[in-house]
Amino acid sequence: MVKTYVRPPPMMAKGEGSHLWDIENRRYLDFTAGIAVNSLGHADPEISKLLYQQSQTLIHSSNLYHNPWTGALCQLLIENTLQSGAFQTVSRAFISNSGSEANEAALKFCRKVGRQRTPPSSPSSPSKRSQFVTFHNSFHGRTMGSLSATPNPKYQAPFSPLIPGFSYLPYNCTTSLLEKSITDNTCGVLVEPIQGEGGINVADPSFLRALRKRCNEVGAVLVYDEIQSGLSRTGALWAHNAIAPNDTTIQPDVLTTAKALGNGFPVAATLVSEPVAEAIVTGDHGTTFGGNPLACRIAHHILGRLSSPDIQSAVLKKSIIFQNGFERLRQRFPDLVKETRGMGLILGLQLSRDPTPIVTAARELGLLVITAGTNTLRFLPPLIIEEEEIKTGLDILERAIEKVEQAGVGVEGTKGQQEMAPPGR
Question: Which of 335, 360, 339 is nearest to 350 (CA)?
């Protein structure tokens, strides 16, 4: 295996619900859900049944032909999005295999729209409207386009030169800076309504409103990356609608999703408004595996379940249990626990120092948690996690912190989170 990840010792062998077991049959309560992927938990029996049934019928036939499930998934994505009150101009979807691919499609679509809105001097020349604006502490993927949109020198420098045309702004920056930076040469603005890898940072509604307004003024495409935050993880189908419910003044032109859409099976989608869809013609983009009937039938089923008002209201109730537990930890360890961030079941606990020793101690006690940003513990449990499981996990976390505090473990002598590669899309 190419050494792209630093992994701890346990080798996971099976899962069920909110738990994983390693090859030595040690059980772990999973507060990571495969990094916001297994929203319906591990080894869900309904998904397993569909995998088996569809694999006996048709797995792949290529995009040379129609199949019953690609169109059905696209239709359900559009219908459920409209019904949710989010992204009210959504019209069509492109199905691919991963978050990076969904973002690559979005970037290409932005460039194509920009080319139409500001035609070049000749068919072979680039359009002046080809620039992108993205934001610091974002993470959009590992492919060259999505990497170019991710302003982290550690990830970008080894692979330079990157794709030209990207500039970066502070997250939640001022309206005046947006007006200065988003110009007639901007084809697209890519932003996470909630930054996952960057530390669970939530966009201010006023920031998203200013982004929408400025993109309208200059004719740029506004893209929301909801790969980690979408599909009811916030208690609403899409994160931007949890931040500002039913507010059409913040809604995007393009939205990308993946992760939870397949609950572990590779599938992703790029949702677009009709003006964006009209710019894309036959041959502009493609995919070998994207839209295959196996992935799309599974995603259709998962989307139907994740769109349920019952699961969304349960997410909000479970979030309160986490928040109350975090407050208890803050009161007990005031020098360590500084702030809680996030919403629903995409949550961050900001610490005053490297959380890696706590992650290790929690794992040894049977709890899986991960980090994000700088000194942030990140919590992304399955949405179906039981309330008692949350309480059990928070008790384990408290014991882990107590163990680390008593041992006086600091950054020195540990593998800091800076060595841990974030997930590839």
Answer: 339
The predicted-structure confidence for 372-389, as pLDDT tens digits, reads as follows 999 999 999 999 999 999
- Name the residue with tokens 């509604």: 205
Please name each of the domains of the chain with its CATH number.
Answer: 12-43+309-419 (3.90.1150.10), 52-306 (3.40.640.10)
pLDDT value for 33: 98
- Return d(Cα 18, Cα 318) in angstroms, integer: 14
Instruction: Give pLDDT, residue 417.
Output: 39
Q: Please give the structure tokens belonging to residue 362.
A: 């929690």
Write down the H helix ranges in 62-204: 68-84, 99-117, 144-148, 153-156, 175-181
Beta pairing partners, 370: 378
Read off the tokens for 123.
Answer: 């068919």
DSSP state of 334: T
pLDDT per position as a tens digit, 35-70: 999 999 999 999 999 999 999 999 999 999 999 999
- Tell me the CA distances in angstroms from 205 to 77, 232, 239, 245, one per residue in order: 24, 18, 11, 10
